[in-house]
Amino acid sequence: MASVLHGWRAARVTPLGELHTPPRMTAVLLRLTVQVVLVASLWRGLYAHTGTTAGLTREQAVTYAVLAVLASRLRELDQYAGRDTVIQHMHFGTIVYWYLRPLPPQRYYALRALGEQLYGLAWALFGYAICLAAGVVEPPRSAAVAGVFALSMLLGQWVLYYVMLLLDQLCFFTIRNNSAMLILIFAQNLMSGVYAPLWFFPDWFITLSGFLPFQATLSVPLSIYVGRIELSDAVAQLAVQAAWVLVLALVTRRVWRRAARRVISQGG
After folding, report:
1. How many CA within 13 A on the CB side of residue 175?
2. Which residues belong to the signal peptide in this entry (predicted)?
């Protein structure tokens, strides 16, 4: 019972910071609305004089882009304002408290991330329902597509969790890594298809991204949703996503052990 209570408290750390700060929630709503409107307008404008580009129709492109914006809310909470990022804990020396709590740091990090994703999921579903009702995005072609998309999205968020965990674990081994973190986050967003579908990039870029886990986080599930990846090919993509989950889980588990050796009682 005590472990469940500790887990619940850890999971609600960052969401509570948002819920107790109404101006930040208003800012999120405003930013999300502006992003959706601008992205939909941009892609409709790009398709104003063409029917199909890179194998995508205008409706598919708009749907992909808007869903990418909504999916970005799953892990986009403002941890920095609450001094709850790993890089801040390392800077101020408070990371040591992660190793003094009843919960192991690995479990605390995982539960906190779970709470963030559930909170972000509520925002994403809210935005999706409005966009679907307004005709901004197309519905899935069938119940089977919706089910496979949901499974792929779950695996993709699992992969994203481990990717972000690796970025945070980097803080244990570097002294000043703000710039490195920004570069890596930009690379993750670029290669995962957040800024634009990967099919618009050169062949060498697509080939390179195929050897990295980034496209498994977002590009694959959204490609299934819009029909770029057919259901007959989805099984192979799901297998690749599951393989990345397994590989990254093993890697991050090993890094956690090495990171613990670098923590001292005086701080970071």
Report:
1. 0
2. none
Q: What angle do CA 62, 239, 212 make, to 5 degrees?
A: 65
**Residue 24 to residue 149: CA distance in whole angstroms:** 30
Q: Taking the complete model, does pTM exceed 0.90, yes or no?
A: no
What is the DSSP secondary-structure string of 158-180?
A: HHHHHHHHHHHHGGGT-SS-HHH
Q: Rounded to the nearest 10 degrees, what angle do helices 105-134 and 58-71 cross at? A: 140
138: left (phi over 0), alpha (psi -120 to 50) or beta: beta
Residue carrying structure tokens 């990254």: 248
Q: Phi and psi (nearest 5°) for 160?
A: -60, -40
pLDDT, one tens digit per residue, over 210-221 is 888 989 999 999
CB-based burial label for 6 (10 Å; 0-12, 13-18, 19+): middle
Handedness of CA 150, 116, 10, 179 (dihedral sign): positive
Q: How far is CA 123 from the centre of its chain?
A: 13
pLDDT digits (tens, 9 = 90+) for 149-195: 999 999 999 999 998 888 888 877 776 666 777 777 788 888 888 88
Nearest to 200 by CA among 70, 52, 95: 52
Residue 169 contacts residue 90 (beta carbons within 8 Å)? no
Return the structure tokens found at 209: 């991204």
Q: 264 - beta bridge partners?
A: 267
Residue among 25, 36, 124 nearest 81 (CA)? 25
What is the rounded distance in angstroms from the CA atom of residue 78 to the CA atom of residue 174? 23
**Which residue ranges make up each domain of the chain?**
1-139, 141-267
